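Comment thread on ticket #2218

A.B. wrote:
> Attaching the input chain for the structure job we discussed in standup.
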Amino acid sequence: MPIHFNDDIESQDMNIDGTPTRTLRTQPERGVIDIIDQTRLPHALHWVRVATLDEAAHAIRAMQVRGAPLIGVTAAYGLAIALASDSSDARLQHAAALLRSTRPTAVNLHWALARMENALSTVPTDERRAAAWAEAAAIAEEDVAQNAAIGRHGLGLFRQIARHQGTALNIMTHCNAGWLATVDWGTALSPVYAAYDAGLPVHVWVSETRPRNQGLLTAWELAQHGVPHTLIADNAAGILLRQGKVDAVIVGADRIAANGDVANKVGTYLKALACADNNIPFYVAAPRSTLDFACFDGAAIPIEERDGDEFRRVHGLDSRGVPSALSQLPDKEAVANPAFDVTPARLVTAIITERGVCPASREGLLGLYPEAKHG
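C.D. wrote:
> Ran it. Output below, let me know if you need it in another format.
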């Protein structure tokens, strides 16, 4: 049965140097948004102006914005931006198709665009621009509220673990499913922030998550908020789990199939296997927009294959502190670069959503979302 927790934790924006900040700044009167260029992190915090449809598509495709929820919100605003000078049906359809083509696996992208198209389809063309900005803003605010709720429900689970063992919590993550992956709070990191803000002793093992190293983003944002953490190489996860140094693993998701199978950043499946072997809870945190009830199981989830140069080249700062790229392989070296893998539902201890905690199964998910039976 679904579990609901009611911890009264006050919601507030995540912090950068003590300043509450969201990942998106909107200027509807000017028809633009500002985003954090996550390809520049953790070395530099750099805001980028998005003023055209092509710039919105590039931001998603080039991973200037990352994380399924933030991709969806950015796409919604991208559609609003696209209607600045032409709000015809043809323009709406073209913009949605272009944005939809940027990333195949993250279902939040497709969910947000479908919602925008549905909301705008009956709006007169001369009113569409304003309506588009209003709907995108509604999606963004819902993201914030849902992620805060995920934090409260996840905190309830963390409290149970802490009471059972009586020591500080050691949580492991994979990829970045924090504030940077959403508008605010995050998914998998939301319970961590909630625990920290509630005074619950917590430490995070941050897996680096090659080849895009999203774990470095997790470490950066945890440091900004003051949460104790340690960055580890991906291959160190197994020994830490085996040695009993991890109390639970929590990850986000890019798509959850109707049966509870979970698509997430490649490497997630390996952590789930190690958790199963060592009897350690493996949690997945995601909002409703990540659930794909039309997708029967994980085998039907498309897996994005990204450019091999992401693997061939390492990005960082040189000895002078200048951003640079280092080739670690010859250009002609054959590489495979799948961006995601699928963790079977049987390896998932529970799924945490804004409505509560449930088993990773069709019955469990429908227990939280009974309306999906008729969707």
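A.B. wrote:
> Thanks. Noting for the ticket: The chain has two domains: 14-141, 151-374.
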